Amino acid sequence: MSLIEARDISMNYRLEGGRVVPVLRHVSFSVERGEMVAILGPSGSGKSTLLSIIGCYLRPSSGSYRWQEMEVTEASDSRLARLRSSEIGFVFQQFHLLPRANLIENLTLGSAYQHAFANGGAEEKAAELLARVGLASHQSHFPNQLSGGQQQRAAIARALMTNPALILADEPTGNLDSKSAEQIMGLFEEVHQEGRSLILITHNQEIAARCERVMSIRDGVLHEEGAFPRSPPRKTPTRPLASVQVTPNRPRRRSMEWSVGGEAATGVQVAWRNLQRYRSRSWLTMMGVIIGIAAVLSTITLGSYTRKKIIESYESLGVNKLMVRVYPRWYFGARDKSPVTFEQLQDRTDLTPLRKLFPEIRLLSPVLQVFTESIEFGGRAYKEARILGVNDEYFQITRRRLLYGRGLNRFHVDHKRRVCVLGYEVARQLFSRQDPLGRIVSINGNSVQYTCQVLGVLAEQKSNSEWFNPNRQILMPVSLVQMIAQHFESQVHEVNVQVRPGASLTDLTTKIKQFFHLRYGRSAVVRVDSDDLLVEQLKKFLNLFTLLLTSVAVISLIVGGIGIANMMFISVNERLREIGLRKALGARDSDIRRQFFLEAMLLSGAAGMLGLVLGVAGYHLLLFLAGKVFTQVHFEWVFNVSAIVISVASIIAVGILSGLFPALRAERLQITEALRSE
Ligand code: ADP
Ligand code: MG
Q: Hey, what CATH topology would domain 4-254 get?
């Protein structure tokens, strides 16, 4: 049986615009195992096209092409890839060595796809073959450090890597001087004597004359020229042959020996080696993703961190305060039913039960505001003062700070002591230079007059409230104020409550309203105020702010991702020949796709990890520096789980999106186009 047999093969190229160019017309021939055949023909006659078909990387438009018993025109792409990777070796006119890889790397380029090296051993084999073609001392040279003849010898060594049955050479000496050409032909003859079949394309009669058989092609039509009159066999100038016996590689079934994990591992290795070949460009591209991820991570983390801190500090200003006002309903009729009719708030029936029922209440103070005509001391009078009856907890609830002296205590409140704490303005007006502590001041209310002793003075407090200006207040025990004040003014209708940290103001508000409703029915009107709304507004604003920052970071990440995609696209175009070569060496389309995809994933993965590290280091550094500059900020370790999750998800998304399209493009690339490109 012939090794290959072509019957009636025609090949038409379809040009853009639908024009069909016939290149091969009804070509039939066969080549036996161990034959050395030359194909002669002028340029443009279709020699390379025929060789692509013989090499199983171009399907003819019509006709039958058989490799032993297999019909190539009907075989699957991956079956053909396997055939190329085990049975066929290619040698090209332009050598097609990867410029950025040394000779060993060039020879092992296909080993990831070649079954022969599924269990390793590629480098040993490469070294052995390089020695055989006389390049033992050039293993780690790069192609541009070699002469053309040396490069072609390396290319022949590469073609021999898988011990193929057939070597195809497309004008292998076309770019070489006659001495190098002679060496190359010597090598080919040696290879032929090992029992391999060779098909050489040439337009050099002399070279054709050294083959056993010549076919010539003109305008796509093949003519058998028959056996050449053989000149006596020459002695090859190269070293004597190692006794390599060519055993035909058995046609293999779909190989199951390559585990998925193994393939992925080889893929990662190949991708890693490629990235190293383009190291500086890879780094530059990665910078985009590194910075993007670092920015995403740190803006999200710092955004939510500052949000939390701002809200905390805002809460410390007293937003955990509720002001509860309860008034009798004026038009509450006699027929309306209620358990108890409300008149005023009382300790025993209202305030104490509130404390007991709701553990969220941390502090509670009644507030009773009374107008006064004047407060006098030592001949001076101040007429703008307001008297405020409160208990000892009021100071904490409202976070009043004392300038001198002390505040009210429990004893003062329980025993109606005649003591007072003066607002800043009151004390300033009455005592400009004297020490107010311990002085007795006299207070004139509506037709009542009484005295009290100054316990302390409040620190000045910012306020733009005329009605409730803390600097003009005189704070006294609520029990005392109730006793002195006139009937209606002595009724307590307001309580201030401090809520425990973490408890919800809104929930407590509802509960307090329910409490009064159950107790007084419709006879009481309950109003609860808090600064809660302000915090809600603040939170909304801060959320918006974080969102804005994050979107800026995300945009930078997208830019980085586009950078990677761009680089992968450029490298697909730049590496067309590499892709073609890999396919010729047996890579399946899916191998190529996987390789480019893995490269993109590897790039963005490595960049992403570095970005995470940089981000964490960066925002901690920022926090540290902020701690040095602003006394309010203290350094602490901050890790925001959702920020990390979002960042990792972005890394994966960037990898997938930037890898997908270049990978698909690389996959679809035809070997012939790829190899033709410069
Ligand atoms: P040779 O190798 O003998 O010089 P080729 O096989 O490379 O010739 O090309 C034969 C003819 O086919 C040429 O006229 C060339 O222009 C044409 N040809 C080759 N490849 C393509 C292609 N992909 N699309 C269209 N025409 C092509
Ligand atoms: Mg050609």
A: Rossmann fold (3.40.50)
